[in-house]
Amino acid sequence: MTGPLELAANGLTAVAILLAGRNNVHTWWTGIVGCTLFAILFAQNRLYADVALQVFFVATSVAGWWKWVRGDHGEPLPITHAGAANLAWTVPLGVAATAGYGALLHFTTNAYAPFLDSAVLVFSVIGQILMMQRRVENWTFWLLVNSIAAPLYLSRGLVLTAVLYAGFWVNAIVSWRNWYRLAARQTAASAKHAEIYESSQP
Q: CB 3.0–4.6 Å: which of 55, 64, 139, 196 could bond 176 by disulfide?
């Protein structure tokens, strides 16, 4: 049965995710509150990697909030691409970290589904870091995370949370397309600005 804690955590996190997809700075403070509530909920359900993840989310949300507000030398932080070279080492590192942390939980705790739980943790960390930097590719990692998290939470009886993460899966696709278009517009605008500047030089 869905309790008030799960309802509140899902509601605030849903708002935060929708705001993130729309490139809205208010995603950060709503996410901080939602993640705090989720940390309590996951602790009650022995999803310990998810508890650690929520603590990470709270800390990085504070940093992300500051980074987005501060911008880039007085200008809004632009949406850009992470680049193939960065992703080429990020993904294998994520797989290795998942295996290592999953093994730690498996042998030292009574964690439920430690390797799947660890995959949610590790790839959420990667997605969060890319989101803080306003990289388009953050949404590909959220697609992966949501694909694992929804059935994991359903298996623990967290039906509302599973449904929410299934919705996040759809939102990640929509947001990915939105950020891709925004990045293209910003690149085109920057190129046009550079062209105008060069033509104005003697």
A: 139
